[in-house]
């Protein structure tokens, strides 16, 4: 038996973590054994917790290197859930391949592109290997349409990796991003 890989991607606030945790619930209702991982760099909601922007939380293992995931996998695990995959090293692809060949279903959630509109390599690699891709959209915080595919940085900090939420990023659609870039003002 082999497992399958599902990747949930899109901009910030598009519901990636909500969708990931809804899959955790589905497996748990079916009395399947699940395990959740997050990167240690993301300390927004506490050490060992994955949380949605609405505050729904589940316990998670905090990982600083992709290969550490394998140390937590026992023979009875049915499904593995990994949030914020954009922050993991590229070895995650091999780790995930190893898991699905063992018969474990894997669900990954993460940003497709940074605020610089550059693809995150680890997410891009996982998308290439996925059996199923769920591409989410957020509500554009400029025009109010449910078509935002960009995370736009509203601070002057130009680091590509910069943990945060609404105080740093808003979701925008392409139309509104274009207007902002042309007019050079929010
Ligand atoms: N611009 C937005 N568009 C859609 N949802 C938003 C927006 N801003 C805040 N939210 C809230 O964020 C929730 C999604 O949070 P979450 O699943 O953590 O998203 P993600 O993991 O993609 O950042 C939505 O259910 C909604 O309550
Ligand atoms: C766009 C963008 C985001 N980040 C950070 C900001 C947050 O800590 C996470 C994304 O969280 P979410 O669950 O998808 O809302 O990533 C970043 O470091 N760099 C970026 O370009
Ligand atoms: Zn818009």
H/E element string? EHEEEEHEHEHEEEH
Treating each run of at least 4 consecutive H or I residues as one helix, how many helices?
5
Q: Which stretches of 5+ consecutive residues score pLDDT under 50? A: none
What share of residues are in beta strands?
Answer: 15-25%
Q: Any idea of the CATH topology?
A: Rossmann fold
**What sort of overall outline do the alpha carbons produce when their principal axes are compared?**
elongated
Number of domains: 1
Helix content: 25-40%
Subcellular location: Cytoplasm
Main location: cytoplasm
Keywords: ATP-binding, Cytoplasm, DNA synthesis, Kinase, Metal-binding, Nucleotide-binding, Transferase, Zinc
Family: Belongs to the thymidine kinase family.
Secondary structure elements and pairings:
Elements lengths: L4 E6 L5 H14 L4 E6 L9 E3 L5 E3 L1 E3 L4 H4 L7 E4 L9 H10 L3 E7 L9 H9 L2 E4 L14 E4 L15 E4 L1 H10 L3
The protein binds adenosine-5'-diphosphate, ligand LXEULUCI and zinc ion.
Structural features, described:
The structure is a single chain. By secondary structure, this protein is an alpha/beta fold. The protein has a single domain (5-136), classed as 3-Layer(aba) Sandwich (Rossmann fold). Helices cover 25% and strands 24% of the residues. The protein has helices spanning 16-29, 68-71, 92-101, 121-129, 174-183; strands spanning 5-10, 34-39, 49-51, 57-59, 61-63, 79-82, 105-111, 132-135, 150-153, 169-172. The strands form three sheets. The chain has a six-stranded parallel sheet, sandwiched between helices. The chain has a two-stranded antiparallel sheet with strand order 3-4. The protein is elongated, with a radius of gyration of 17 Å. The mean pLDDT is 96. It binds adenosine-5'-diphosphate, ligand LXEULUCI and zinc ion (ZN). Residues 140, 142-143, 145, 172-173, 175-176 line the site of zinc ion.
